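Hi everyone, sorry if this is the wrong subforum. Our group has a chain we'd like a structural model of before ordering constructs, and none of us has done structure prediction before. Sequence below.
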Amino acid sequence: MPLIQSLAMLLLAVSAGVVVPLQGGVNASLGRGLGHPLWATLVSLLVSIAALLPAMLLLRVPLPTFEFAGKAPFWLWSGGVYGVFFISLTLILMPKLGAGGFIGAAIAGQVLTSLVLDHFGLLGLASKQLSYGRVLGALLLIAGVLLIQFSGNVPAAQAR
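Answer:
Right subforum, don't worry. Here is the predicted structure as tokens:
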């Protein structure tokens, strides 16, 4: 893949990452207002559908083949459950850990899981073997999460 194309895709991935703490903070506030994080999860998913359907119509996305639905393994339908899990934990944990701590820990979990998926080529992904550099990168990321969460963690009243 050409360097410019790789950099463009990395920038798009960064922009996808930018919205995660924004979504978490907005949904956490919504959950407090609605009285429970699961209400905010439901609203978030309904708003997602309301935003997605017009985009699909505008892009003229063809209907799926329903023949596939009957043949697909059960685990292919688990993505929505993962979404509910992530959104709900974001709403519950981000206000307690802060955006930096929660997002750092979530990214560490994503990277560690990704390394396993890559190493074994699971879920139809290309196989990318573990290397010392990849393991070191994951360890540095975990160290960074710990630094983000536990350094300078003095309450404002004690800092004065």
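For your construct planning: The CA atoms of residues 3 and 105 lie 29 Å apart. The chain has one domain: 20-151.
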